[in-house]
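job 3f2a | input accepted
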Amino acid sequence: MEFPLLHATDPTTCISGKMSRISRITSSIFRKHIKPFGLSNSQMSLLFLLSKRQGLTQKEICDILYMEKSTLNRNLKRLFERDYASKKDFPEINITVNGKLLLEKAIPSWNEAMNEIRSLLNENGEAAVDSILYKLKQTTS
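job 3f2a | predicted structure (141 res):
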């Protein structure tokens, strides 16, 4: 049996695969730095968003972070359990004082992760990431 399409296809050229590898590499660097705070990358992103924009609904959070609803629910559950986020004013979600205190402690480590990635990417690499994100967001808006 022959598989001509399979034989002719080079999966190393797959853009989705490349983006996934980029995501896993950067996530690994961030995890290394924020591990002491017991937060995942997604949870830290949620807390940062909630610290900057009060009273967001779950749908708004999903739309802003391009996050699946199930992923959001799983992460919010953990943040609610640890009193880092509140659904007291549901459907609005807010960061708690404990969440802000945790972020305040974690930001120096987050900055270390940012510096490590920036040193690997250099200015041109970071600009390329920004450009890719901008272009992809334009097509999904």
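job 3f2a | The chain has six helices and two strands.
job 3f2a | closed
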